[in-house]
Specification:
The structure holds two protein chains of two kinds. By secondary structure, chain A is an alpha/beta fold. Chain A contains ten helices and nine strands.
Chain lengths: 311, 160
């Protein structure tokens, strides 16, 4: 395959990408770690963020800026025309006339797919409710490969909110393509959705479920911690019951393999103790930084200018 | 009198469609997915005795042959139904119904967080399995089983 296979594509779910396409993107991201050429000069990228975001929006804006492009858009629904009753379909049809590519974050599941049906410009899903967040998954894959040296046949522990955590949903479905063994650690209320469990069974991915993080640690090559997301709960009492369910600290990591990589999509609250930050394989801040390289590569590929990067 | 001893007097069709073995209570819903010509003569039997199903519904439509698209939608409502096409009082085709691979409208996504509830668009679904019927919303990708279906009218209103 070549970079041309990415030109003008929508990025809605990780299921839209084959394994070889994802590896192609990760290879490109490796080259983009050091490249800040003005490949997007004269290009405009629209950021339609109907829901707050810090890392995803800033890392995309950084990626666009470092490649010489320009961002327009809004960072919350209150200042969009949605507050006046405009539909998402109308918003994207208007904004695509102002820009070359649309970055969309929206609280509703399936919003990115719907936007892509109405926009001729490529649409990149930057998180649609509890559904998917594909660029986070590409960043996670890139981080795992950088930290572990490979993607195949890893033991990956997911801990925390597996029910509403869209980063988890996307990554779990992709790891199935890399012969991963998966351990799911969550309070019963926050178990991985049934559809995801069914998918793992259909793909013959070995997985175990449990509620104890300590029991899962010794076999892990990767620990993927997640925040219990207050904003996904309608019942505050349910949130209070589970909000402090897991806390990974340095003492617990003594039972883990020496090279275990610790990831988190951030922001963290209490689920990773700050004493873990000094662990040589605490990768979550590097993970956030890799996001710029991965998003630079993705933008350049979608807009057809990645070939200009020295390989 | 035992249920199986009851006979139903309905004139034989000269030309048209018979939908038999519809799940009891689904006939009126099935009629809503058809685009019958104005004035079509339709006979509907509800909760009739069936040796196979216990109870069943039947629809007979005079002078109209169901399209493949209509038959496929009926399959989503009543997967066990059979379809017979009648010409010159004879059955010229009898087959089981096969659900469509994809369809728009007809039902509402059951996921309250799905974008379709905010936008003026019909639901869009892929059929994951026909036995048992399981469909997947093409927007939010949540799966919905037949017994969870909430049917809509052609304008997308719930309660059809």
């Amino acid at each position: 395959m070549t970079g041309r296979d990415f030109v003008n594509r929508d990025v809605i779910t990780v299921g839209d990408f084959r394994r070889d396409e994802m590896l192609f993107l990760l290879d490109a991201a490796g080259r983009f770690e050091q490249v800040n050429a003005p490949l997007l000069a004269g290009r405009v990228v629209a950021t339609l963020f109907f829901e707050p975001s810090t890392r995803t929006r800033l890392s995309f804006e950084s990626a666009v800026g470092r490649l010489g492009g320009r961002c327009i858009g809004f960072a919350e629904a209150g200042i969009s025309s949605q507050s006046k009753g405009e539909t998402l379909a109308d918003t994207v049809r208007v904004v695509e006339g102002y820009s070359d590519l649309l970055l969309l974050r929206h609280p509703r599941e399936g919003a990115a797919r719907l936007a892509a049906e109405y926009a001729r410009a490529p649409v990149v899903n930057c998180g649609d409710g509890a559904h998917q967040h594909p660029t986070q998954t590409f960043v996670d894959l890139y981080t795992i490969r950088r930290e572990c040296g490979r993607l195949d046949e890893l033991n990956v522990v997911f801990a925390g909110d597996l029910r509403y955590g869209r980063a988890v949903h996307s990554l779990v479905s992709v790891l199935a393509q890399f012969n991963a063994r998966i351990q799911l650690v969550s309070p019963t209320f926050l178990r991985l959705p049934l559809e995801q469990m069914r998918m793992l069974e259909d793909l013959n991915v070995p997985f175990r479920e449990g509620t104890s993080l300590e029991e899962a640690l010794p076999d892990a090559d990767v620990i993927y911690m997640t925040r219990i997301q207050r904003e996904r709960f309608t019942d505050p009492y349910e949130f209070e019951k589970v909000k402090d369910a897991y806390r990974l600290d340095l003492a617990m990591l003594k039972s883990a393999r020496p090279g275990v990589a610790i990831l988190h999509p951030l922001p963290r609250v209490t689920e990773i103790s700050t004493d873990v930050d000094s662990h040589p394989h605490a990768a979550y801040f590097r993970q956030a930084h890799y996001g710029v390289a991965v998003r630079k590569a993705l933008l350049a590929l979608l807009l057809g200018c990645a070939d200009e990067v020295p390989g | 009198m035992r249920p199986e001893d009851i006979s139903y007097k309905v004139n034989k069709l000269e030309r048209g469609t018979v939908l038999d073995h519809l799940r009891a209570g689904t006939a009126l819903r099935a009629l809503r997915v058809m685009r019958l010509p104005p004035g079509a003569t339709v006979t509907v039997g509800v909760n009739l005795h069936s040796a196979r199903l216990g109870k069943k519904d039947i629809i007979k439509i005079e002078g109209y042959e169901l399209t493949q698209e209509e038959a496929a939608k009926v399959a989503l409502i009543s997967p066990d139904a059979t379809l017979s096409i009648i010409r010159a009082y004879e059955i010229v085709g009898k087959h089981d119904l096969v659900p469509p691979l994809r369809f728009k409208g007809l039902i509402r996504c059951q996921n309250p967080a799905c974008i379709v509830h905010d936008e003026r668009v019909p639901g869009s679904f892929q059929v994951e399995s026909s036995d048992p019927v399981m469909v997947r919303c093409e927007y939010c990708e949540r799966s919905i089983a037949l017994d969870e279906f909430t049917f809509t009218d052609p304008q997308g209103r719930v309660g059809a």
